[in-house]
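Hi there. Long-time user, first ticket. I'm pasting a complex I've been working with (about 941 residues overall). I'd like to know whether the download I got is complete or cut off, because the file seemed smaller than I expected. Thanks.
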Amino acid sequence: MNILFLISVCIRAFALIWAICFHLRIEYWQVTWICGADEERFRPRPKSPMLRLLGLFLVFSIAALVSVPGGRAQTRSDVGSLTAASSNNFPPVNLLDSEGRLTGFGRELSTAVIKATGGEVSYIHSSRWTEVLDMLAEGKADFIHDTGYTPERTATLDFSEPILTMPERIFVLKDRFDIASLDSLRGQKVACVNQHITHLYLQKIPRIDCVVFATPPEGLKALVDGGVDAFIYPRQIVLYYAQKTHVTGRIKTIGDPVRTLTWHMAVKKGNHDVLVRLNNGIAKVKASGEYHRIYDKWFGKIAIEGHIHKEIAVTIGIVLALGATAVGGFVIWNWTLRRTVRRATGELADSERRFHRAFESSPTGSIVIDDSGIIEIFNEEAERIFGYSAADIVGKNVKLLMPEPDRSQHDSAMQEFLDTGEAKVIGVEQEVSGLRKSGETFPLALGVAECGYGDHRKFIGTIRDLTERKALEERAEKSRMEAVRTQELYLRELQADLHKFSRLSDMGQFSASLTHELSQPLTAILNYLQACRKIMGGTESNTSVKVDGLIEKAVDQAKRTAKILHGLKDMVHDGEPSRAIEDVNTGVEEATTLGLTGLVRRDLSVEFNFAKKKVPVLINKVQIQQVVQNLVRNAAEAVADSKTRHLKVRTAYDREGMVRISVSDTGPGLTDEMRGRLFQPFVTTKRGGIGVGLAISQTIVEAHGGKIWAEPNEQGGTTFHFTLPASIRDEVTLDA
Amino acid sequence: MHKVKVLVVDDDKAVRDSLGALLEVSGFSVDSYDSGQEFLTHRDLWDVGCVLLDVNMPDVSGLEIQQELTKKSGAPPIIIITGFGDIPMAVKAIRAGAFDFVEKPFVDKTILDSINRAIDQNRHPKSAESSTAEATQNLKNLTKREREVLSYLVEGLQNKVIAYQLGISPRTVEIHRARVMSKMQAKSLSHLVRMALAAGIAPIS
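Hi, the file is complete. Here it is re-exported in full:
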């Protein structure tokens, strides 16, 4: 905005200056013939408007210095009347009025000049310039009051101070564009006034075809009519006639003035007194302002000296103002620019400071590297994390902060990225290992962003130390594991509880059954005995019931109770029975022998088929032997009525480290229904049996982690199996 | 003197036989059956004063027999004989209309008292109304917590279960229970249950 405005102002200012200068150039030629003695020193064809201006200043300043002393001269021939001679056909300088009297600029000026020296002037005149010269030479006149200066004339004449300056211009018709200077007039017809100084000048220039006319109006007319191509003559005179004949719109001047001519008053060579008097008068007339009045009267609105000063002052003022404006504008522009630059620089510096502060105080470690991996910035947090100070590490390769294998791969990885643009780390936060100054490796989260441009590629790495987080995670993991363990422990306890509960529940069910079983005979006993008491008390004498019969029955029931209790003897245990590594073979053999002891029928055969190696098992020997004893006794009872009474007892390793103990009989076998209920308490097929043996056996076997079941065998009898987990580890101990 | 006929239904021969002996020497005429099925199919009830019914029998349960019996008009009072721990079932039986229950093993006085009351009740049904009025009157003396305990007892729950349900200790339940028995002037649990039901105490469930 600012700059645009200033540029437009500058352009306008220059345009104005150019316009003014162009204008001044024209005006300059209009005014130079007024400017007195110094115009000859003035260069007529300045190269630039500025130089012309400068020249103008010089002209005026020197003129001011020189003209004054000239005006002060006093001579003895100041008084007395003089006769002036002149031509009468050189308007507006000399011409005849309608009554045939001489008038014009020349006459009025010479009157004023002589008057200024305290004398009178009388005039004689002729239309022929040669006659005028003769009048002076013959002494008829004291001076010629206007004559153009030529060096030749100085032979017969002495010239006064100049009274008029006129440029000799080339006039052409307005529609002529082929003529631009004196040179282009060669071979053209040029109008001249006979014996005029211009004519004399042009005659010396070869190839110019001079067409001679007696008077200027004739030359002008010839030009307008097309009789000639150009008319060369003092400008003011031509313009005077052009105005009179109304042809100013049809002609124009071209090129520079051919010459600049000066007009003077002149005396006969050697007439020094008159010359001095004339010079004094001219100086006075110029000084009093009379000159300007007369000039204005005859040459119209052509600027006079005062006006010139004023105009120059105004021009200078304008130029100065414009210059000042331009300079001021430039200064302001410069100042604004400088301020903008300063502000921008300040902002940039601020921004950089802020960036630095942010960078430095960032809670994440931040490192800037260039495209070859050299560290450029290393912030405080990075210092803290890695243990290097920025001063130590800046300028070194970022590889230093990495443990192997990252360290040796970094250069190639980076080069690969720079070559292919395929980022493996850019824009993604990843977990990598860092290497502290202390040599400690630690986990860190690394995010890399690219910044910079072109050949100045840089990378910002942000780093978070994950050591604590890892520790936290590990702790969390640990406590989670602990929780899991606790939970597992709890579950195991729960399972144990459940197991216990289930055993208790079994126990509850068992004791309910037991209670029922016991309460039956007990109830019967009570009933019998109470009946006896009533009979013996005699309240009911007429009864057929015999006391001794009742007592016998009560005894039977009491025996039944005792039997149940006997069967239960080994069943009730408090707490975990003590176990030890035992050899199953030995235990089974003992138990079988024990089981068969005291049986009524001894005529049965027992076949042992034991595993060859010792079979170490962690058991409660008494309980397991009771199971075996139970099974053997059952088997013996089962075969009691059979023709073949044969028992087989064997031990063997079962699948998956179990030891199987089997007892087979050749008895009648079991119905499917019976086999289903075998292990329920108080279910029996035996006369007088109470049905707790197998139930107890099952409890014991399962408590050892084994199973018990029955199946029919090839002999038509039943085989009972039970398994126990083998303790292989302890086999060695036993063998040793 | 005409002997009152008492029926005994029990699957255990010894119990059946001994109970028969006891009742006979106590002046009752006894018919015994070893299963519910046999009893139901073969016996008319017109001359029966009372039925002793073992609740725990393999083929047809005592409760089923009871249900069958009560369908018949003029059904005799039923005394349930239970094993230990069968209290919930006994209470159920009482609610279903049994006169009483007796836990095995029992002393002669307990069973004979129960039989006599059953027979008496059957003969003089009006006394039931007066006993109901009495029970209702007694019920008003119970505290809120005692009524709660009573309703659980009627449910047939054991002391420790009641304690768990009410969030109090089993010992406290025992104390409440004793107070309830005392206030209700109950001679036994079955008596208490019977009175409570008569007075309109509903089981919790």
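A couple of notes from our side: Confidence is low (pLDDT under 50) at residues 26-44, 63-77, 302-308, 729-736 of chain A. Chain A has 20 helices and 23 strands.
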